[in-house]
Amino acid sequence: MTPDPRPPAVPPAPSGGHRPPGLLHIRFTAADGTPLSADRFEQLLRLLARFTPVTEALPPDAALADVRGALRYFDRDAEGIAELIRLRALAWHGVRCTIGVAGNPLLARMAAQAAAPGEIQVVPDDAAAVGAFLDRRPASALHGIGPATARALSAYGLDSIGRIAAAPPATLQRILGAKTGRSVHERARGIDPTPVVPNAASRSMAAEHRFAHDELDPVRRRRALLSLADGLGVRMRAAGQVARALTLTVRYADRSTTTRTRRLDGPTAHGPALTEAAYALHAALGLQRARVRSVALRAEDLCRAERAARQLTFDPADEKAHRIEAAVDRARARFGAGAVHPAATLRPRSRPAQP
After folding, report:
1. Domain range list for the chain
2. Superfamily for 204-311?
3. What CATH number has the domain spanning 23-188?
4. What is the H or E stretch that residue 178 is in?
5. pLDDT digits over 293-340, tens only?
């Protein structure tokens, strides 16, 4: 009798209470502590594709993966698949994975943030476990709530996710507005219907700056954003691409993050336009005394430059800026990427004391 080559079926989930989660939020960290290169990030996405085609790239160092369709094939639950991914990433690419396993992207992301570096944290997909996981966490730990929103909620005594979930939706709408109030109420109860959208890293381009120490100075943060925006512009122009949107991700000392996206006025790879959008995103967060560990910019919704419509302008200063940028690109191509930098990215030198 020929043995059945198929792996045994995974036992069905018990009806009613506990259901096995199936979404992974994976954060990649190079073992030597250096930022991930674009090539290595592409390799890690291909590793995830060995387990599931439903993978959403979150450059520069994260991804979402829906492995519910792979549980039967690998004869493992989602945590078991996460362990396989963790081991293979470390053995094949020298990259540590911090993985959150949950029933939706919101909870998976928060589980990954709460996990120790290189570890796996699971949030079972049932109401009691989700409530216990969220209850005593601060309002700022809820993805989508920035420092300004957290302060507004704390002023009304809603300083934890459990208290936000217990508050009437009408109260949250009066504090935050109708749309934001409804969204925050759902998220505080662990509800996130956002699907995992398979994409390719080439649809976006990202860069990150990690500060040597938790940064409080907004001037230094703006200097880092200028450098990132300038670098993204150089890379997009070299690849013949333009972006329609820009996303800023700020990571804080407590490992929580805030992400904001801004649609650009038009498809562009122009450094000053990207810098202006990055500054606007940063200013909108109101980070007065926040301890910032890193900032990242991601140019999104990329398309070929020749296919993008460009708004005509009769401003000679704008045309001059584009000509200067083209000349700088030629200098970098000839003498190296470090040949030219925006002057504002240079740290001012202290002047010697006058006798």
Report:
1. 23-188, 204-311
2. DNA polymerase, Y-family, little finger domain (3.30.1490.100)
3. 3.30.70.270
4. helix 178-188
5. 999 999 988 887 777 666 555 556 666 666 666 676 666 666 555 555
